[in-house]
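Is this the right way to post structure tokens for a design question? Let me know if I should format differently. Anyway, here goes:
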């Protein structure tokens, strides 16, 4: 039987629009791959002048306290000023994180980025990408590519650059989640995080009509609308956790970020496991994550997203906290009662589930509260996954249930009735449902 997730059992990450661990940046919208899960239109002329990108960072500096800048796109590694941009971000005191498909990464470019101060890479690799040399490969077969990228980052980065992997999870790849989690465990020495992003698509033929400023619009204009995916059934975080527990029965998240419309929903769900390639000793509890976020903010002035690899590879340094933390105490006890394993390494690795926008029955759209991936646009911060609407329609898209009934007025005129009495009262800030990050 599925063990239900309960948001009240986990630490609610304190991230907000004004004070967040991460902020999104897109210096280019040009990309060298097609990814079915991408929400950004590929523009061959999409490279922005470096001066424009720096102006966008000024918006971030003015509006948001942040620990790291996720440099994405498009494909940031083909941006001609990527090394200068990383150097600039680092000079501002932010952690530069490159979100890349990895196709253009070479040891030479990686060495330049290392010297410029890059903190980490998040590679998006999944089987719904059209990738030269890897087309039609399964998730298991793509582990060879993942290992190549992680090994390059570890060796060229001299063990000082964090390495994470994203995979968009579709209905046909949901059963691959346990395999990907096991692969990540086998390589805990060089893979520091595994992120599962649940596919979403704008529904053109669903139970909803879309409106901008009261005018009905066709979502077929949006890049994250796919005809062949319109009939899919959305995956939710509980399903991914159930798959993880098939192979890790003790798996338990420790922190979450809720939705804007549903406080009990899990938009970002974080688990931290202590172990090595042979064994998982246990999972961090909510109090541990609360300590981490509070201490980092008190000492560094920002909430934490990316940790330096040294600590992740040497998680034993955290065990003295077991004196006051029950979760760590259980992990330490399991370690101490196995003397044959005392000389084996103890690693720390995160497993993250991201559940993008959900449309509620009355048309409200449940977004990530506080949005760690907020992006500067036109002098303000907006959800990066809704930028396409602003660029195409000039405003946000709202949803309402399709009209399903009608009635006659006293004068005999026919009027439409909404499927719910509150369907016409939608918040102005509703957004179109995005697909996923690349």
């Amino acid at each position: 039987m599925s063990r239900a997730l309960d948001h009240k059992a986990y630490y609610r990450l304190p991230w907000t629009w004004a004070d967040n661990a991460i902020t999104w940046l897109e210096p280019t919208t040009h990309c060298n791959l097609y990814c079915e899960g991408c929400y950004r239109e590929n523009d061959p002329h999409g490279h922005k002048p470096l001066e424009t990108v720096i102006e966008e960072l000024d918006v971030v500096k003015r509006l948001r306290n942040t620990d790291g800048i996720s440099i994405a796109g498009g494909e940031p590694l083909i941006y001609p000023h990527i090394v200068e941009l990383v150097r600039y971000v680092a000079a501002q005191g932010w952690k530069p994180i490159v979100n890349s498909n990895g196709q253009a990464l070479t040891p030479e470019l990686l060495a330049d980025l290392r010297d410029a101060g890059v903190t980490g890479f998040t590679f998006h690799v999944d089987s719904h990408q059209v990738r030269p040399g890897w087309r039609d490969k399964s998730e298991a077969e793509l582990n060879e590519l993942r290992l190549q990228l992680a090994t390059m980052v570890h060796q060229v980065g001299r063990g000082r650059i964090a390495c994470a992997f994203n995979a968009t999870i579709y209905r046909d790849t949901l059963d691959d989640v346990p395999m990907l989690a096991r692969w990540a465990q086998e390589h805990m020495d060089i893979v520091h995080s595994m992120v599962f992003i649940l596919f979403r698509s704008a529904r053109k033929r669903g139970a909803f009509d879309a409106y901008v400023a009261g005018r009905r619009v066709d979502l077929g204009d949006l890049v994250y609308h796919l005809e062949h995916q319109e009939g899919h059934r959305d995956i939710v975080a509980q399903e991914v956790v159930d798959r993880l527990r098939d192979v890790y029965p003790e798996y338990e998240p420790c922190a979450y970020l809720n939705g804007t419309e549903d406080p009990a929903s899990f938009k970002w769900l974080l688990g931290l496991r202590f172990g090595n390639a042979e064994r998982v000793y246990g999972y961090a509890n909510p109090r541990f994550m609360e300590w981490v976020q509070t201490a980092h903010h008190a000492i560094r002035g920002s909430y934490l997203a990316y940790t330096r690899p040294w600590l992740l590879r040497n998680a034993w340094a955290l065990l003295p906290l077991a004196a006051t933390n029950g979760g760590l105490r259980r992990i330490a006890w399991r370690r101490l009662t196995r003397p044959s394993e005392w000389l084996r390494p103890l690693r720390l690795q995160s497993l993250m589930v991201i559940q993008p926008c959900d449309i509620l029955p009355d048309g409200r759209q449940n977004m990530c509260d506080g949005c760690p991936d907020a992006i500067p646009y036109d002098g303000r911060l907006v959800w990066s996954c809704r930028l396409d609407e602003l660029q195409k329609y000039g405003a946000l898209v709202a949803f309402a249930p399709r009209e399903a009934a009608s009635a006659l007025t006293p004068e005999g005129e026919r009027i439409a009735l909404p499927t719910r009495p509150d369907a016409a009262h939608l918040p102005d800030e509703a957004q179109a449902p995005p697909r996923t990050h690349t």
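Format looks fine. Someone answered above. Worth noting: Residues 404-438 have pLDDT under 50 and may be disordered. The chain has ten helices and 22 strands.
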